[in-house]
Every structure is written in C-alpha cells, then in structure tokens.
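[retry 2/3] Pecanex-like protein: previous attempt timed out, resubmitting with same input.
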Amino acid sequence: MGPDVPLLNEYKQEFFWKRFPQTVLGGPRFKLGYCAPPYVYVNQVVLFLTPWLLGGIGTLLCQLQLLEELHAAMLSGLLMLGAAVGVQALALYAARRNAMVERLGVPNILADEEEVEFTHCVGPETVRFIAPGKRFGLNVLLHTVLAGALCGLGTWYVLLGRLTALYGSVGVALVVFVLSWVTLCTAEYSLIVNTATETATFQAQDTYEITPLTRPLYILAFIAVDLADRFTGPVPELQLTSQVLHVVFLVLPLLWALGMLSPLDALLLWGMEQALVFGLGGSPMSSNLRLLGMLAMSVCVTVCTFFIPSTLGVVLFSMAMGFLLSLDLSQFGTYCGGGSRGLLLYLGLLLGAMTEAGLLHHFLSPSQTQNLARVSQDAVSYLLITLFIVCWALREIQGAYVFGGVFLNPLYPRGMANVRVFKQRSRGLHMAGAIRRVLLNLVSPFAMVAFLALDGSVQQLHTASLSVGFTRAFRVVWQSSEDALLQMVVVVSVRLAAGDTRLPGWDSLGTGVQLLLVGLLSDRLLQFLSKLKFALAVLVTSWTEKKQRRQSAGTLLVLNASLCPLLLSVVVLSAMLSAPLLPLFTLPIFLVGFPRPQRSWPGPVGTACPCPDSIYYQQMSGSLACALRSAFARGSLGPLTPGSHFLGRFQDRVVWIMILERGYGYCTVNIKGLELQETSCHTVEARRVDEVFEGAFERPERLGLNQGINLHWGNALTPCAALPVRVYSDARNVLSGIIDSHDNLRKLQDDFLKALVWLLLRNCVQRLKAFPWDTEEGTGGGGTKSQSSQLGQSTVTQPAEAIMVESNISSLKFRRASSSLTSFGDWSDEDDLFGPQPARRTVALVSTEAQLGDTVLQTGPSLPGSVEMDSLFENMALSALQPLQPLGLGLGLPAVDKGRNPEVPPTKSSGTLAHENFSCPHSELFSLPPGWRTAPLLPFRLQQLRPLFPEEWFRFTLGRLALAVQDEASEDVAKSLKEDGGLKDLHAQVALSCLISLGAESAFTSPSYVYRVYSGDVPWTEGLKWLSENKELYQLALKAFRYSFKLLFDQASLGPMESLDELFSTLEEYERDWYIGLVAEKGWQDSVLQEKPFLFSLGHDLTMGTYTGRVLSLQEQLVQVGHLNGEGVRGQWANLSWELLYATNDDEERYSIQAHPIMLRNLTVQAADPPLGYPIYSSVPLHLPCF
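[retry 2/3] Pecanex-like protein: success.
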C-alpha cells in the first residue's frame, strides 16, 4: 500500500463526523445519516438547555436577592431532579409501549446507529431514540439523584456574584457564566438523557454504565475545590487555584472531545498506581487486584508510622515493613524453594538491616552526638556516590551498546553463532555482573539504610513528611535499589555542593520528601526524553521515509516547526501527567492521551489469539524466562523499570517482553509471541529488526572509530544482549531430486517393510512390558505354568481349531486389559453405546465352543417376539467369511488337517489362516492379534510378494528384541525364535498385507502418491478398508511409512546404511528422539511441548509445486534481545485504542498499521492485547527470581 492510503475510508469518515459532534455536545444527535422530522432536533435542543433554564431560575432569584445562594442552588437542584424523573419515566413508558420484553443488550460502540421511523413528536420511537433509558434500575436512581445534585451545585459554582468576586469584572464573569453552563449542560445530557461515546475509551464495552458518570464527577471535583475555598477562609493559594480551575472549567468539553481526561476506571487505576509508586515507594502491579491489595497495605503502614511515639520505633518499623512489602509475598514459597537456605537468607537480611539501622540510630543519631552523626553521614554519602558510579559502569559494559545506545561496547563478544564459544567469551562480563549484583543487592541497601538511620529528619515525629517520606524511603531502598541509589546520590550531591550554606525551601522538606521529589522528577525527566525522541522520530521519518511521505507531510512539518513551543508543551504535559503522547493516525499530529496504568490495557495479562504456531512460543517461554532471569540479574538489559518493553528475535520468531512488576530479588514479566505467517508489512519490519541486530552482534570485535557508532540510534529498537535459550531451530529443504528420484522410490518399498517389521516386533515387546507374561517353563505337575507355556504345550495336544480359540480368547482378554494404555486397535465409535457388545467370533470359534462347552463368550438373551438368529454366523466378523470366488481360485491355499475337526471347512481365505504351529514355545510372545491376519486378499498375491519380505532383517530384529522381553533370555531361545518358520510366516503375512493395502505392491510410483500416503490420505485399494478398521495396525503402518521416508531422506543426504545394526540404531533413534508426522497433527504439538529433540514433517508447496521437508531441532541458540522505546509503544497503543474503539477504523489496510521500519508500527500493533491486537501467544505473569 502507498503512503497516501486514506486514513479513514469513506464510510468511516461519514460515521466519524456523525459521532464527533455528539461527543463534543455530550450526546445530542444533530447529524444523522437519514432525514428526520424537525421535532427530533427541537426535542434534543430543549433537553440540552433544560439544566441551563432550571439553573437560570435559581440564578435569577439569587441575583434579585429573593433567595440566598444556598437556597437558589437547592431550588435548581430540585427542579432538575424533577426533570430527570420525568425523562426516565418517559423512557420507561416508551419501552413498555414498544413491548420490548427482551433485556437491553450491551451497546456495541463499534456499530453504527440504525434508521428510525418517527411517527410523533412524543411517540415511543422518538422517546427511545432521544432517551434510550438505563439498563439497570439502580443506575436509574443513582443517575437521577446525581443529575439533581449536579445542577444544584453547578448553579452555586457559577453564580454571577461568585464569579464577579473571583475575577473582579462583570464582563469576565458573564463570559465565564455562559461557557460554564455549556459545560454543565453537556454533562447533564450525558448523564440523564443519552450518553455520548467518549473519545477517551479504556474498556471496549461499558457493561456497568460507568461512562455517564465521567463528566459529572470531573465537574464535582472542580466544585469541591471551590467549596473548599469558600469555607476555609482567605487562603491565597487556594483562591488562585479556584480562579484557574474556573477557566479550565470552560474548556472541559474540548478536553473531553480530545480524549485528554481519563475515564473513571482508568483514572482510578492510574491514581492508585501513581500513589503507590511515587508516594509509597512501591511498584506497578501485574493485576488490578494486586494493585489494590498492595496499596491498602502500604497505606496502613504509612498510617501506623504516623502514630509511633519514638524515632527508634519509626526506623525499625519502616525498615522492616519496607523490606517485607518489597518482596512478592504471593510467591514466598518460591523464595524458600531451595529449602531452608532461601528462608534463612531473607531472614538474615531483614535482621541484619534492622540491627544496623537500630544501632546506628541509637548511638550515632543527631540527638545523641550531632557532629559525629554528621561526619558518619558524610562518609556514607561518599560511599553511596562510589557505589553508584561502580554499579553504573558495571551495568553499562554488560550490554552491546554504551552511553544510551550510541556507541558499541568493545568488550561485548560479537560474531559468534556457537553458544559454547559465546559463553566462554562472556565469562569476564559474567564476573563483572556478579560483582554488580553483590554491590547492588547487598552492599547498596545496607549503605542506604545507614544513611537514612543517621538522618536528622527522622526526629520530626507525627508529621506527614516523616510518615510518608521515610516510609517511602525505607521501602524504595529494597523495592528498587538502583533507582533509590540514584535518588540518594542526587540528594547527597546537593548537600555536599551546598556545604554549610542552608537552603531554606529545600532543607525544610526533610530527607524523605526530598527523595520523593527527586524520584518523581527523575521519572518525569526520563519520560520527557523518551517522548521527545519518539516525537522526533515520527516527525523526521514522515519525510525521510519515502513510503511514509504523504502529500500532507510538508505541511505538517511546517506547522510543527512554526508551533514548536506548542509541541514542546504537549510533550511536557504528557510527561507530567505520565500519559502517552498520542500521534493521531501515527502522523506528526500530537495529542496528550488520557492517563492510564503502565500496562495500557484493562484486561488480565495473558490474553492472546492462539493458533497452531503458538506452541513454539509456549515451548520457548520457560527457557527464555530463565535466560531473562540471568540477564536481569547481571544488568545486561539495562535498568529494569515496570512498563519497559523488549523485543527478542530468533529466525522467524518475534518475542515481545514487558516488565510488569519489580521488587527486591524478583521481576514479573509477560512474554508474547507474534505471528509466524509473515505479512508484507511484518516482513519489512522484521527485516529491519534483523539489520539492527546484525549491526550490534555480527560485526567483528576490533572496530574502528567510524564503525563504533550505532547507525540505527534513531530506531525504536536498541539491541541489548544475546541470550542462550533452548529453542527449536527450524530448517526447511526443498526435496527436488530426492522425492522424485525413481531409485529412491524403489528403495522406499524395502525400507517400509523393514520399518514395519521392526515396529510390529517392537509393539509386541511394548505389550509384554506393560503386561509381563512369565515365560519360565514349569515342568512339575504341581507347579503353576505360565500362560505362554500352556499355549506352547497346547500345540501338541489340542487341535488347531482349539489353538485358535484359546489364542483368540487370550488375545481378546489381553487387548481388553491393555487397550487403554497401549493401543486403540479394538476401539470404535460404536463401543459401549448400548452396553457391552459381544465379541466377534470366527466359524472355528463357534464350533469349538459348541464342542468344548466354552462359556467365555456368551450372547445376551433374545427380546420377546423377536426372530432367533442364533446361527453359525451370528455376531461374526464379515472378514471371517470366505469371499465369493470363481471356480478354481481356491487352489493353492494352505493345507488344513481335516482329521482334527471334520466340521471345519477344508479351505479358508488367505486372511483367515489357521494359527501357525509355532516350533518355539516363546514365539507366542511375538504373536500378532488375530484381527491383523484377516486381510481379504487372494493368497497368490501374498505368495508373489513373499520375496520382498526381509527375512534376514526379521531374524536380526527378532534376536535383538528377544533380549528386551526377558533379560535372562539365552542364546538358545533367541536362536529357536529365529528358526521358527510359523512366526516368520505370520509377520510376513501381516507386513505384506499392509504393503498391498497401501497400494505399494509394485513400487511407489510418484511423489504425489508418496505425499498422500505420508499424510494418511491413502488412495483406495482392495485392503484399505480392512487396514483402516484395525486402527492400531493402521497407525503402525502409517508410522512405518513415515519412518521409511525419513530413512530415504537421511540416506539421500548422508549416504546409505552400511549395516543392519546401523539401521536398527537409526530406527531406535527415530522412536526415542524424533516425531515424524505432519505439522497439523496433535502429536506434533504435543511433541513440541514435551520438547522432543527432533521433529520432521513432509509438506507440499502448492504455489511452487514442490515438496519440502521441515526439521525442527531442539538446541541452545542465541536469541537477540533489544530494548524498545517504551513511550513510543505507549503512544502507538494509545492511538490504536482511539482509532479502533472510537473511530472504529478496523480496516486491515489502514495507514496506521502499515510497515514503519523505524517505529516498528506493525509489530507494535500486533503486540497489543486483544481485541485490538493479535498476539498468538501471551504468557501469564511470570515471576522471575533475580536476586
């Protein structure tokens, strides 16, 4: 898309220009998309001016001195209360007349209004259009009462006598009076008639009707200041504040229209967060509930400090509570996870700090020895300055850049892709990081505690400066040691620079309040610099980036240059309010966004738009969190402040990291994963991210002066460090020349049979391990023989049919017992639908039951009146019936001993061969289920393919796996198993039946056929239905085919297998370390989450017409991480919220989502919380101990 893509499409422009006047006026809809009768507009004008008319009555009576100010205000309030009751009664009446029995739904602010047909000036549809009414009865009462109170207090607030007294001019008072009533009318209309959609929108939906309260409560705050000025006497500061607020009161509609004033929910959360961080020394919290709980506990501690009667008690209590509140008490079990050592460490720190503070305050406080206390505090001051410089230097050398990301760090290792070499070269930096960790986490807190314990300001008991200032000071020492060290160094530097000179205004504040002000000013200064950098980036790139240069770019640059003071004022105001700097449509048109919490979004952390690719981020999040923990502890990622954003990049993965919370020895983060299916915009920005990281990490280590500068300093991303993370490396190969090679396709058939034989034998071993059979032979008459021995001996004494019966029965019992653990071969959708189903029986089984009186398998009683169908073929598998064949095709079938049981038909199909007479008594352990031998295939087809069966490989595999059945198996047992022809014929029959059922009896003829079989989409063959009904065998055959294709791939790349032992080891490695399947399968996702070392998939690129192989390898790789301009992120998110929630600009090709390689606009939009953003993965808040 070009740079001149419309900011809003035509439909949205029309919608916006209908909605914006409604927002400015507080709710009246004077611009509709259709023709409406004049009375619709007249009614709205009357309702809009009603508060002014009713307030004017009170004002007039007051001016005529017929009523006092208070009584005039009460009269106006009562009149407005009656008018509000009338409006709500009309709304209720209209709802009943329209017979709207359904509950009013939550209004969708993204939807346009519907056309209404008006019939009368006070008709139900007219009333419903003008005053929709409230959804909750409680809100009807609350809003009605509030409307009366607001009108009464507002009348009192803007009385002409009061305004004349404030400004000393009747003309100014008249102007203020008129404009003030416009503000009051907008608030009253929004409260009682129809609520306007506010520009400042925090929640996507106003479920509890909080929006109507926003404007009235802001007005009540202004009125409260005026009332305080009225009743507190002549206070010059308060009177000046009242004068200023009366002027600001006039522009409240403009501020509401520009979205500078927060909604109530955002304002409450923002105020709580600011009070907790700057007033009480805490940290922003990862959830609203945690924020509320921590604020309540901190306030209780501050109040308790105010009433403590002794200075020593204040020091000990503030120090102890500051340490405890700086810990994440909800994760206290994690602190002690290493046993008693973790608990003893924190208890030792607490007791040590309390002992130090108590002793220093008791023996060296200014109340005891003033000179000694001053000398001691000066010594501690120099120690603090030294610690700050050393910690800052050690932190700077940890990252890829120094001095604010301007110059490359010559000590940082570069140009190394090997993780082991990178770790070796980073040992020096790790040692420096360990020293910094000790200085920052152990030495600095104790030094700062000593400085505070020796301070004379602690003597001012029962003062706000002590209860607030020192409680915050002792808290921030532990909550954020690095920031506290900076604040104390600034205070110390001012004292040392002043010397003996007294600074009255500064010294009278006390050390605690001084530290509070320094912390607040330093935060606002850093915000100002970040916002200024972001504003300059938007301004400059709007012209320098050709793809961002719109036709209006030159005009906007000239306007910003000519209005430079105004631009700086906007930046300063946004920094003072800690509000985002909002670039409208991401153009150089800057507004002050409404203040909101650092998290920027109202919902809980961890919301995402999951897709199949989310598993890759879920897998790497744990290892990445461990790497972040080490990097945070060393300082590799710079100063850790809640609200900081980091970007990680590895191959096609982009990870977004946000710091939510920070405390002593811990950090809470949120990890998001962005989409892997890269769009054009995503690709452009990802390529620039790669270039920025290459400039930091891929350059040679010896750099010249001209190469030591960050050429991408203006970018929103500043590289910090490369972190070793255990992650999947993704390799994709085009299989041209491999999958389409005839030699390889011919080899595929042989590999398939070998893999299938290996899987069949291994499946037998797995069953035996899950349900072990005692294969020890018992020859004594009184001993108990094993089941396998009995089966082995039965081959001599019982007829073949009886053998078949016992095998079927035992196999059935065994498979019923093990089906839930080892196989799904006997499961079907019809099982247990109407109770247990009788097992299917072959003809031999039925006849043998009749002879032996076997009652193992019984059929249920017949229903009354039903026709008895208890015939020979009752409840019998269809595949057991002999297929109809032309005459002569029954020749050549295996011989059956007719003398054993003359009732059994003399011939059977190839799929119902009688149970082989195993020559080895242990062969039954490797027997296969009877259902696997019932393939409806002609015998001569199996005979023709018999040479394909790998007999040598069968004997080799059988010998190797025989040891897995019983550890003490002798060589004689293995030899007898290998020489058992019946066992070999059984496995050959099953393997060749699977080969025919997959349509590979000749050879795999084409790559498309190979891909279809690999994907499980097997073309129809004669035995496919039989194979698919035996689910376990089908899965084994499919796995064997996939293994054989992987063998083909490996041999084409690495060379052929040199021995059977190498092939056996390769198949074992596939089974143990590989998942070979399709990306879309659930097994693929489970294997990724279980961290299977390797995964392989075959794919087909329809656009290119090629087949691809994809290999995922789990290994430790370097993930490059950089720091993002946090204010740039907040500003773009603020614009996203305004653009989607208010302007409803959800066009996927809108300008504000187009690629911007400097601001990383597209990636930033993706990383926003749903429903505005669409990260495919978002973790819950992750607690990272980084002590």
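[retry 2/3] Pecanex-like protein: Residues 100-112, 773-915 have pLDDT under 50 and may be disordered.
[retry 2/3] clearing retry counter.
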